[in-house]
Specification:
Shape: elongated
Order of helices and strands: HEHEHHH
Number of strands: 2
InterPro entries: LapA_dom (IPR010445)
Keywords: Cell membrane, Membrane, Transmembrane, Transmembrane helix
Strand content: 5-15%
Oligomer: single chain
Radius of gyration: 31 Å
Structural class: mainly alpha
Distance between the termini: 42 Å
Number of helices: 5
Strand order of the largest sheet: 1-2
């Protein structure tokens, strides 16, 4: 399994490097359309290689997907923590009740009851 992972990562690296080498031309990214930027008085633009734009878009998409999934699974995580808290309280209650049940018994018998 480890070799399959290494082969996949190597292939991915070769593909990303070939995409980067094939898309080295400079492109200009602007924050707002020119007319709107002139109206507001603020227009930011930057020139960078095209492969930075491509890989940045992929990275941004992955980050947004992870954040979306994390927010979507919030109800499952909170339900799990609530169930764990109830389980802990139930175990504590069972221990307390077993202690009451073993008050008049011999210590050895009480320990054996606790173990089962």
């Amino acid at each position: 399994m480890r070799y399959i992972r290494y082969a996949f990562l190597g292939t991915l690296g070769v593909v990303l490097i070939s995409v980067a080498l094939a898309n080295r031309d400079m492109v200009t990214l602007t924050l707002l359309p020119e007319a709107l930027g002139n109206l507001i008085g603020f227009n930011f633009s930057v020139a960078m290689p095209l492969f930075f734009v491509l890989l940045g878009a992929v990275a941004l998409g992955v980050a947004i997907g992870f954040a979306w999934e994390w927010m979507r699974e919030h109800k499952h995580r909170s339900g799990k923590s609530r169930a764990e808290k109830e389980l802990h309280q139930t175990k504590r209650e069972v221990r307390r009740l077993k202690g009451k049940q073993a008050e008049g018994k011999d210590e050895v018998l009480a320990i054996l009851d606790e173990a089962s």
